[in-house]
Amino acid sequence: MAGSGYATASRRRILDFLKKNANRAVTAADIDSHLKENDSEVNITTIYRYLDKLAGEGTVMKYVAEKGGKAAYQYVEHGHRCEEHLHLKCVGCGRIIHLECAFMDEISSHIREDHGFELQCKNSVLYGTCKKCQKSISQ
Amino acid sequence: MAGSGYATASRRRILDFLKKNANRAVTAADIDSHLKENDSEVNITTIYRYLDKLAGEGTVMKYVAEKGGKAAYQYVEHGHRCEEHLHLKCVGCGRIIHLECAFMDEISSHIREDHGFELQCKNSVLYGTCKKCQKSISQ
DNA sequence: TTGCGTGCAAAGGTTTTGCATGGCA
DNA sequence: TGCCATGCAAAACCTTTGCACGCAA
């Protein structure tokens, strides 16, 4: 399924980590340190190459809007049509919320009709703070 | 006005270019090549330092969501409260549209009430294609 | 004169590329 | 066997920092 190429141990470990963290976006460095902690290091080059492959296949979403210029990747659940809705990303915990609601259509209609702008959901990410992180900040 | 520090020739040239391109976001490299073309080169370090200063003052907006990890900066017209509304950025020409309309409030209310997410407009940029670029593509 | 601005060089960090080796199918 | 995946090293890329000099006020 995920991965048109060969199934290797390295790829399995990377994909496992992505799936376990399907509710948030992780960086190549996150994957690298996770694997190192588990004594199953995979070369960082390999991680980047595989992530690039997965992003090309649509298996992961790639977000390029990180502070330090760090790219973040998130596993995409089967059936999610991430090019058709916007995403909210929490600056606290990195969690991604898929804006799959009727209101989403209103947003893109308004922007198209009133601003003459054709929205491209891919790469369009709204930043902010999720409920959990709002609480932990105010505590 | 723009610039609490010394008024130098370098800074004047950088600010001039930013003002002339107030309708779009430019990168440090854009400024660099523009100045080189006009035989008035300013060291890239100086450009970065001045842009950083201007961004701190609020004279320019800094966008960190560029494809190659390149940061883009845009001159902010006096009176624009860019932290209170979202921005649309055209992937074709780099033009920025300020979403200063009543609908903007609806978006943030919906996201807050239905998704428990507090929107942070700074750094939240929606990508897409503006009217002009849609036409030039279809031609 | 004082402190800010500048340029150069070098470092920093993330990501990409070349090349030879190793491994899956 | 044939192609793909991997690791290492090095490069590319954007951006920041240290230090000495120069210039605005």
Task: Summarize the structure in words.
The structure is a homodimer of 139-residue chains. With 139 residues, chain A is α+β, with helices and mostly antiparallel strands. Chain A folds into two domains: 1-80, Orthogonal Bundle (Arc Repressor Mutant, subunit A), CATH 1.10.10.10; 81-139, Ferric-uptake regulator, C-terminal dimerisarion domain (Dna Ligase, domain 1). Helix content of chain A is 42%, strand content 17%. In chain A, the strands form two sheets. A three-stranded antiparallel sheet of chain A has the order 1-3-2. A three-stranded mixed sheet of chain A has the order 5-4-7. In chain A, strand 4 (87-90) and strand 5 (96-98) form a beta hairpin. In chain A, helix 2 (28-37) packs across helix 3. The first copy, chain A, starts with 8 loop residues before the first helix and ends with a helix. The model of chain A has no long low-confidence stretch (mean pLDDT 85). The structure holds a DNA duplex (25 and 25 nucleotides).
Most extensive contact: A-B, 35 and 35 residues
CATH superfamily of the largest domain in chain A, please?
Answer: Winged helix-like DNA-binding domain superfamily/Winged helix DNA-binding domain
- Count of discrete structural domains of chain A: 2
Which spans of chain A have pLDDT < 50 for at least 5 consecutive residues? none
How confident overall, as mean pLDDT of chain A?
85
The rounded distance between the terminal residues' Cα atoms of chain A is 44 Å
Structural class of chain A: alpha+beta
Strand arrangement within the widest β-sheet of chain A reads 1-3-2
Strand content of chain A: 15-25%
Question: CATH first level of the largest domain in chain A: which class?
Answer: Mainly Alpha
Helix content estimate of chain A:
40-55%
Order of secondary-structure elements of chain A: HEHHEEEEHEEH
State the CATH architecture of the largest domain in chain A.
Answer: Orthogonal Bundle
Radius of gyration of chain A: 17 Å
For the largest beta-sheet of chain A, the strand count, sense and barrel status come to:
3 strands, antiparallel
Oligomer description: homodimer
Count of individual helical segments of chain A? 5
Shape type of chain A:
globular
